[in-house]
Amino acid sequence: MTISQPPAAPVQKVGTGAEAKAAPAATEAKASPAVAKATPSPAVAKAPPAPASAPTTAKAAPAVSAAPLTPLEPPKLRLRHRLMLLSFVLVVLMPGIVGMSYLFLRAADQYHSRAAFSVRSESFSGALTTLAAFTQIGQTSAPESAVLYDYIRSQELMQQVDARLDLRHIFNLHPRDVVFSLGDEATTEDMLDYWQRMVRVTLDSNTNILNIEVHAFRPEDAVAISQAVIDNSADLVNQLSAIARDDTMRAASEDLTEAQDRMRDLSSQIRAFRDQNSIIDPAQGVQGQMGVLGALQGQLASALIEKETLLPQASGQNDPRLTVVDRKIAAIRNQIAEERARVREPDGDEQSMSTVIGQYEGLLVDLEFARTAYTAAMAAMEQARAEARRQSRYVAVHINPTLAQESLYPRRWILSGLLFLGLFAGWAVMALAYYNMRDRG
Question: Which alpha helices (H) appear in 345-407, and where do they start and end?
């Protein structure tokens, strides 16, 4: 295919013929290397220059030369990068692999046993409840479930179960497992901490139900420990019930004795009062005097009527009949005044009748209250005796200790993941701290 080019403008020849011959060669030398690569044939490359008579351009186009592309070198790891990688291996990978290997190769299998129970309280109610409430003797029970929660986690229960089952032997069945075993040289404090990790107890505050989960290296050991915890908890509840019953009996007995003494003292005071005033019942004496006054008032009214009747018939004020009636009226009025004075004012060392009656009524009120308190104390005593003959608090087990058939602990995959996560978090914190100090420095 032939490409036609437009004729170049005539160029004025300057200089000698040799220079004219050299011009086409210089023009070809400045041609683009791409053209040279397009026609790599040696014959074409070594072609003689065009004759001088060939038309040439006045000004050749500038040649475009491309610089050779050098390949990029791979980034080199610096010293700090290598140290970071080495620290990741030393801090995260190696400890994580060692811990994971221990969990899967040396950690002993653990079996669990679950149980659940609660403390039931029966309130005694009967015909004596109202009388017992009068003396404020009631059943104020503490939250027994909270007491048992602390008791199960206590050193006292651990020592009791240890004396019964030999916990040091049970928790050291696999001496190669130094992480999850108790250890032969464990102190009491170490054993208590291990006990709280192997015997887990939770308390539901709404239902007051205690849930325990016991871990051991054999399923039968876990069941035995769970049963021992329940038995000792029941013994503690029985002891607390016995103490409560003894306190109730003692308080009821003291109240009864005090009521008896008070009633006897008031009875003695009433008897001395009657001997001092020579009267059995001041109220009845007053009623007798009121009867005398009533009779005198009646006689006085009759005498006044009689006088009014005699006035029209009398001959004058000196009529003997009027004189007799007037004397009778005066005598009755004097007697009425004496009777009233005897009620209001004492005669000599004697007290007035109103004072005597007030003192006597006060003693009667105290005696009545003492009798009521004595009756209530007797009722409370009988109720305390009735409660002492029955068990008012007891441990109700609604989930007996279960026997495991498969080992679920330790949770190896979960512990391994947590181990790697913790190691990586620690390594990341140290790396960030290093780069922070490096940037600031």
Answer: 353-388
pLDDT digits (tens, 9 = 90+) for 246-256: 888 888 888 88
Is residue 434 within a helix (H) or strand (E), and if so which, with residue range? helix 412-440
Q: What is the torsional sign of CA 164, 170, 171, 172?
A: positive
SS3 394: strand
Q: Could you tell me whether strands 209-216 and 199-204 are parallel, antiparallel, or unpaired per DSSP bridges?
A: antiparallel
Sheet of 111-121, strands arranged across? 199-204, 209-216, 111-121, 393-399
Q: Which residues contact 155 (CB under 8 A, 6 or more apart)?
A: 188, 192
| pLDDT tens digits for range 359-375 | 778 888 888 888 898 89
pTM of the model: 0.58
Which H or E element spans position 215? Answer: strand 209-216
Model pLDDT for residues 117-174, shown as the tens digit of each residue:
998 876 554 444 444 443 443 343 447 888 999 999 999 999 999 999 999 999 999 9
C-alpha distances out from residue 389 to 128, 242, 245, 255, 417, Å: 16, 11, 9, 20, 58
For the record, the structure tokens of 288 come out as 């007798």
Name the E strands within 275-410.
Answer: 393-399
CB 160 within 8 A of CB 232: yes
Other Cβ atoms less than 10 A from the Cβ of 421: the count is 12
Cα(196)–Cα(315) distance, integer angstroms: 122
Asked whether 91 and 204 are in contact (CB, 8 A), the reply is no
